[in-house]
Write a structure and sequence with these properties.
The structure is a homodimer. By secondary structure, chain A is an alpha/beta fold. Chain A contains four helices and seven strands. A seven-stranded mixed β-sheet of chain A has the order 3-2-1-4-5-7-6, sandwiched between helices. In chain A, helix 1 packs parallel to helix 2.
Chain lengths: ~170, ~170
């Protein structure tokens, strides 16, 4: 399979997983988090899928198409490791859906950030929230979900936040 | 349609058009030109589609995955406006297939480069050669071809080089 084939499959997987999660949270109130704006394509897709939701975007440095940049109230600039833990204090409520696409070409860095996210993200999530991620997130609070039909395993990752919290994922601050 | 949808359609169109052209040149000898290496995805796809062909890649500055960089004999670095006209002198024969993906976010620049390419490319092509392009190429030497099934018009462009040359497209140097 060429890199073009592989890239198309990744984007199709991303779109299918976002579509699944958006459908699954229909009855679950709460804002949406987009971790990594990039060129803004998935942010644009999320706001089309979920026009009624507040979407908060975390990005180190904006490099997106001007049409795909959220307003200042929904754009949190800086290192996600610094900004995400603070979100617990200002988010309007527990998060219904989080999409994380923060991978780079650096596999070690990706694994490191994914391990951090797997701990940092669950405290922000509503019970029953959905998480869509380009990296595997290993956490007892996140239950891996089957991917949509036709999507290869490991192309993208979908999790459901445990409906009943044991309290383990409360913020440690 | 979101930018994610649109981007997936563009890549699918690109892949379908490359597949069509690669099938159509099966009986036509000659090298392949890739104008714009970018991240190397379509170069990787072309060499998978056409493993027996020489592929010459023109790129201003290499920024591709290391696995997708051609050897020095097949990588022509520099401004394509300077390097492409010289190719007439050193190519091993008339070109069977050219793929041009040189567009940027700058529409005026794209139109300008496409107009230049529409004149500069035909002299290098074999009669009956195929051209696949991200930009429309308007030249009496290039006959627009129907796109593969399911591909929206204007997403990508496919041309066939007139089988009989009137001589109009001989290089002017």
């Amino acid at each position: 399979m060429s890199r073009l084939d592989s890239f198309i499959r990744r984007l199709e997987a991303q779109r299918a997983c976002l579509g699944l999660a958006a459908a699954m949270i229909r009855a679950l109130p709460g804002p949406v988090l987009e971790l990594g704006l990039g060129n803004g394509r998935t942010y644009d897709h999320l706001r089309e899928l979920l026009p009624e939701r507040e979407i908060f975007v975390f990005e180190r440095e904006v490099n997106a198409h001007p049409d795909c940049v959220p307003d200042a109230a929904h754009l949190i600039l800086g290192d996600v490791r610094a900004t995400l833990p603070q979100a617990y204090g200002w988010l309007p409520g527990p998060v219904a859906l989080a999409h994380s696409d923060v991978g780079t070409g650096d596999a070690a860095r990706n694994a490191d950030l994914a391990a951090w996210l797997a701990d940092a993200l669950p405290p922000l999530l509503a019970p029953g929230a959905w998480v869509v991620s380009d990296q595997p997130l290993r956490s007892p609070a996140l239950v891996a979900q089957p991917l949509p039909a036709g999507i290869d395993p490991e192309r993208y990752f979908v999790y459901n936040h445990r409906a009943k919290s044991s309290g383990d994922d409360r913020p440690k601050v």
